[in-house]
């Protein structure tokens, strides 16, 4: 990368992928490379990445012209956000091989190693550089447990009724469980208020980040919001359907642990279909208690 002066990072709409790619942005900047990040999620969080130049999503119609000023273009997946990117720029780096490799390392570690071994950067760190505005207080509400019950696909989601039972149990233990969902998901989750549970209307991703940063704990599915909590060093309990997926996509920054729902199921088909039924409220509650009482996490 010594001869490269300008790099474009193209981010998918996925929050988790975008936060992971910011590890590359931070390491490039730390090594004197000018980076511009294109993606609406990080543009929404630009106040949390004050040292990185962020822009909104690029327009496919003018993609070639937009990328012309850059020496190198980096994208995580071969088809997201743009397919056929190699035909639009002479030096494209795709990271699918890093996602697919069989490894116990989470993506945060894999991308850090990519920066060192494949980009040849000397000053490398796993942090994605996310920094809270000075006006905010980390874990200001230590008893607030942020619960994120949704994910990008329904097969990643634990049963809604069990999330509610877990929240009620946490409340009985003296915690303040609150649900966080995307604006377009609120109608499907407004019923939690009938149980006396809170569903704050947070709106923008920037507001979600603020709310999570000041929460004490996070419990959720395999999702981008789990990566957001981990980036902000909120102790995180993440629920995964399969161990292999957890190895790759578990949050990899702050303190936390994962819970696998399909441990005792024999085949991939059964794991993906029935993990959410096998994972009991008692197991999740017990895992949260272990997280809470771990001196390294509390």
N-to-C SSE string, H for helix and E for strand: EHEHEHEEHHEHEHHEHEHEHH
CATH superfamily of the largest domain: Glycogen Phosphorylase B
Q: How many domains is the backbone divided into?
A: 2
Q: In CATH terms, what is the fold-level topology of the largest domain?
A: Rossmann fold
Level of helix content?
Answer: 25-40%
Structural class: alpha/beta
User: What radius of gyration results from the CA coordinates?
Assistant: 20 Å
Residue-averaged pLDDT:
94
Query: Could you say which overall geometry the principal axes of the C-alpha atoms support?
Result: globular
Distance between the termini: 40 Å
- The top-level CATH class of the largest domain is Alpha Beta
Number of helices in the DSSP assignment: 12
Regions with pLDDT < 50 over 5+ consecutive residues? none
- What is the CATH architecture term of the largest domain? 3-Layer(aba) Sandwich
Beta-strand percentage range:
15-25%
The total strand number stands at 10
Sheet having the most strands: 5 strands, parallel
Strands in their spatial order, largest beta sheet: 3-2-1-4-5
Briefly characterize the structure.
This protein has about 300 residues and is α/β, with parallel strands linked by helices. The chain has 12 helices and 10 strands.
């Amino acid at each position: 990368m010594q001869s490269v002066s300008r790099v474009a990072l193209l981010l998918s709409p996925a929050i988790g992928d975008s936060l992971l790619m910011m590890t590359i942005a931070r390491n490039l900047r730390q090594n004197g490379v000018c980076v511009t990040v294109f993606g609406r999620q990080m543009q929404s969080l630009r106040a949390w990445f004050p040292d990185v130049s962020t822009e909104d999503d690029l327009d496919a119609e003018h993609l070639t012209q937009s990328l012309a000023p850059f020496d190198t273009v980096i994208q995580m997946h071969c088809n997201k956000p743009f397919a056929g990117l190699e035909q639009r720029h002479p030096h494209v780096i795709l990271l699918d091989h890093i996602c697919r490799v069989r490894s116990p390392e989470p993506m945060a570690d894999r991308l850090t190693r990519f920066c060192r071994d494949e980009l040849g950067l000397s000053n490398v760190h796993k942090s994605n550089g996310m920094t809270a505005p000075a006006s905010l207080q980390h874990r200001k509400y230590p008893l607030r447990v942020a619960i994120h019950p949704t994910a990008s696909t329904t097969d990643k989601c634990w049963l809604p009724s069990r999330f509610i039972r877990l929240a009620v149990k946490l409340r009985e233990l003296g915690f303040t469980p609150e649900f966080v969902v995307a604006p377009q998901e609120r109608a499907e989750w407004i019923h939690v208020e009938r149980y006396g549970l809170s569903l704050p209307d947070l709106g923008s991703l920037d507001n979600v980040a603020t709310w999570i940063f000041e929460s004490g704990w996070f419990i959720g599915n395999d999702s981008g919001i789990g990566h957001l909590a981990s980036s902000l060093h909120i102790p995180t309990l993440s629920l995964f359907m399969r161990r292999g997926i957890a190895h790759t996509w578990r949050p990899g920054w702050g303190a936390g642990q994962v819970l696998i729902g399909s441990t005792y199921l024999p085949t991939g088909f059964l794991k993906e279909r029935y993990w959410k039924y096998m994972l009991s409220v008692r197991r999740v509650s017990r895992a949260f208690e272990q997280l809470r009482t771990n001196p390294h996490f509390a």
